[in-house]
Amino acid sequence: MMNGAQYVESLKKLKPRIFYRGVRLDDPYGHPALAPHVRTAAATYDLAAGGQHDEIMTATSNLDGAKISRFTHLFWSVDDLIRKIAMLRLIGRETGTCFQRCVGLDAINALWSVTYDVDKAKGTEYHRRFRTFLARLQREDLMSAGAMTDPKGDRSLAPWQQADPDLYVHIVLRRPDGVVIRGAKTHITGAANSHEIFVMPTLGLPPEGADYAVACAVPIDAPGLSLVFGRQSNDERKEEAGTIDCGTEWGVVGGESTLIFEDVFVPNERVFMAGEGEFAGSLVDRFSAWHRANYGGCKAGNADVLLGATALLAEIHGTIKNSIVRDKLTEIVHLVETNFAGAIGSSALGKRLPAGNWLVDPLLANTVKQNVTRFVYQVGRLTHDIAGGLLSTLPSDADFQSSEVGGLLEKYFAGKEGFSTVDKRKLCRYIEGMTSVSTLVEALHGAGSPQAQRIVMLRQADLPEKTRQAKKVIGLGKDRK
Ligand code: SF4
Ligand code: FE
Known about the structure:
The chain is an alpha+beta fold. It is about 50% helix and about 15% strand. It has a six-stranded mixed β-sheet with strand order 2-1-10-11-7-6, with no helix packed on it. A four-stranded mixed β-sheet has the order 5-8-9-12. Strands 3-4 form a two-stranded antiparallel sheet.
């Protein structure tokens, strides 16, 4: 396994085409826009290599029995599913932000299970190829991103009906030695600092959409692949290195990119689906179930930091003993732990797939994510309420450093004795970042928009079975002649 420094070194050997604000980055991993996200991902490597959290951060490979990072591990039992949620909470608490690596982990598990199903039904060799690829990923401890969401153009039209056929990633050429793909994937967390990208279809596909049913692995610096790193709320602050306004050393949100595939050749050994659209729906559903359960872990870890920061700020304000403030803090605890319980519950009720790995309970997993779309906003509102208007009006670090007004600001922004204005400002900047539009919208749309969960929830709730049960319990129909 790599540690954080080795991970960063391994990235530097790559030559990806990454653009940010109109410029191709020569040193993307050192650029202030990306560096915080690289550091956060590096923290996941350090936590795994450090030995202090072995039972959570590492696992035994079911491929070769080696000790590996849990981020490259197949979920081989209910225990693995639960440990994964524990891992996400741990890292969420250690970094206080999104650490990006869960998308690739869930993609690995989705591809493992679906390639197995396709081979069984169709006599293809995708599973063998994937197994070989995964063995390398585990051995070299590589970071992978999962790229599922296409730009989708006119959403009332199917992929192949779009005016521009490239609005969904598709195969444009089939060669004896591989396929050539074209299109784009958007909002891809952690892609810019991953080694490998797992491309996956975004929806189930009928036979006429076969060319859109493509799953494969593409190296980050593959010829023809460009990444455009997205903007985030207050991202110019990242360029104010060393100031309090810059925020923590970690990123805010996952460092999302748009990936553009301009006729990228993918050799056969990296192709895991090429036309079997009838299996694309299972791939999406399984990936989403795993990923939606995650949010009860990672967001709980982030909320641990947010809750602590808010409580500390209340202490500085001198309001921590106020029963109304305490009740608001209690409400945060309630929201966060409700969601964590759902993530653990969906893992505890997991079921084994034919390929041997275990899937979380989809109803509970989707309920977790649906709750996140609300609870993260509610938690944000409560932190804003307790923290006060300072969150949106706090003067800059430069003003606090100013020889003319700095002393005055220190005087008038003082809180409870024993706390510095530096602490107070740091807490404000953290809460500001972790409740910013970027963070909230990620909680709303990441792992699928709210309506996507509701569709699965109603399907999984099995209304016909429940109406049968209601008839039986209430005794409907018994009094008919
Ligand atoms: Fe992982 Fe959470 Fe970030 Fe998704 S939002 S990649 S689950 S840390
Ligand atoms: Fe996310």
